[in-house]
Every structure is written in C-alpha cells, then in structure tokens.
Amino acid sequence: MVAALLGETVYGLGASPARADATGDAQTLYCAKPENTRPLVDTAVALGMADSGTHDKPLKVNGRDFTVTDWRRTFPADFGRACAALVAVRKLPSTSSSWTGDLVKTVIGLIPVAVGALLALGSGLLTTRKASAEREAGELHAAATAYERACRDCLIAWRRGQGRSLEAAMDAPLSGLLAELQRCKSRHPRWRLERLITAIRGLDRDIREADWPTETEALRRLTQRLLDRLEARHADVMGVVSRLDRPWRRHGPVRVEQAGPAEHAETPPDAS
C-alpha cells in the first residue's frame, strides 16, 4: 500500500505540470491557426510589442522583420501575452455558437485592436511633429546665433576703427538667418514675420551704411546703439525659436520691439 501511494504521488507530481499548462497549449494552438495570424499580428502591434512589417514577415522588432513563427521563438513571452490577449477578447469560440455570436465576438475583439491602432497612429503623428519642430527651432537658433556673433564682432571692431574689414563676414550669416525666417514664415503664415524680417534687414543696412564718426565718444555711442538694436532683434528671433519649441500652443503675430523711433535709419548725431 505504501509503495502504491508513493507511485501515485510521483506520477501526480510528474503529470501536474502538463495538466496545469493545458490552457496555455490550447491558446498556442489557437493562435497558430492561419486564420488567426493577422489578428495576432494586429494585437501585438496594438500592444506595442512590435511594429508592422512586410507581407511575408508582418512583425518588426528593433528594425528586424519576423514571421509569426520566428517571432514566437525569439520572443516567447511577448507571443504568449499577445496570444492570451487575443483569446481573452475572442473567448475561444465554441462549436455550438451561432454565426451572429461569432460576429459579435469578432467585432468586440477588433475594438481594442482598432483603438490601439488609432492611439499608435496619433502618437506617431505627435512624435513626427515634435521632431520636425525641434529641428526647425534648432536651425533657426543656429542661424540667429551666427548672425548675432558676426554683427557683434563687426561693431566691436568699429570701436577701434577696424569694422569695415569685418562687414563681409556678415553676408553669409545674414543670408542664412533670412532664409530660415522665410521658411518659418511659409510654414506659419499666421505668425506675421514680415516685420521682424524687415527690422533685421534695416539693422544690417544701418551697420553697413553708417557714417562712422572719428571722435571716440561719438563712435562709442553709435556702436552701443547698434549693439542694443542687435540684442533686441536677437531676442525677437529667440522668441520665434521658443514658439517653434511649443507647437501645440496657439500663437499670434510675432511682436517686434522697436529700439527707437527710427528703426531702419540711423543718423549719428555726433558724426559731424
């Protein structure tokens, strides 16, 4: 009797794992059916386990395409989770269910898949828009910084009477900045960037066409006024950069702070 009990116990211990995994095996067999391949792929994509691949290899993970069989071998835990989710929403159809019941179960099963797909699409669009805005902001920031540096170097050199030789170094940064502002203007017409573009052109012209005085104090005052205008225009452009970094906010026209009553013409009072 003792031997029989021990034998039954050992047999029960050896057989229990198989009996405990019967449900998992049934789910695996169900998900392996050819007609369930597409719903399983859609479920995996909706749950974020993989991206859509090609026709022959419908799943993509880390840039690599997989068949369902290869994906199951490589990522068994993800396969089990996706399969369990698919089975849960479909409730494993029984042979006694009517076609209307099957249809209802299929529709109910597709609802979370559709919602997941829509959420994934919306997230992808937001990510793409954010990346584009960050790239546009970075390019405008770099162009504004390059022009501000070139102008500042030229104006500081004018204090020593050597600014003329540095005016040519402003050409390329000015072209780059205006090109970025024009591109931004075409993408965001409601921001009304014409005034800022005109102000920058006027400042650049005033620097190049200024009647630079020879008297030290007059020269210092003139260069300081132009440096103040340069700083104001740079701050205006940085305001546009800030708008680009927050594309989800509503933005009105760009406000350009005037440095004085004559933004586009500078007549130094001490030039004579």
Walk me through what this model shows:
This protein is mainly alpha-helical. It folds into 2 domains: 21-121; 133-245, Four Helix Bundle (Hemerythrin (Met), subunit A) (Up-down Bundle). It has 9 helices and 3 strands. It has helices at 2-20, 22-31, 37-46, 68-74, 76-90, 99-158, 171-187, 194-209, 216-245, and strands spanning 51-52, 59-61, 64-66. It has a 3-stranded antiparallel β-sheet. The longest helix has 60 residues, at 99-158. Residues 13-19 and 259-272 have low confidence and may be disordered. Residues 263-272 have a biased composition (Basic and acidic residues). Residues 252-272 are annotated as: Disordered.
How would you summarize what this structure contains?
The chain is mostly helical and 272 residues long. It has two domains: 21-121; 133-245, Up-down Bundle (Four Helix Bundle (Hemerythrin (Met), subunit A)).
SSE order, one letter for each helix or strand: HHHEEEHHHHHH
Radius of gyration: 35 Å
Which residue ranges are poorly predicted, with pLDDT under 50 across at least 5 consecutive positions? 13-19, 259-272
Total number of helical segments? 9
Percent of sequence in beta strands: under 5%
Q: Which geometry do the CA atoms define?
A: rod-shaped
How far is the N terminus from the C terminus? 126 Å
Structural class based on helices, strands and sheet pairing: mainly alpha
Widest sheet: strand order?
A: 1-2-3
CATH uppermost class of the largest domain: Mainly Alpha
CATH fold-level topology of the largest domain: Four Helix Bundle (Hemerythrin (Met), subunit A)
The chain-level mean pLDDT equals: 79
| Helix percent band | 55-70%
CATH second-level architecture of the largest domain: Up-down Bundle
Report the biggest beta sheet as strand number plus sense, adding barrel if it closes: 3 strands, antiparallel
Number of strands: 3
Domain module tally: 2
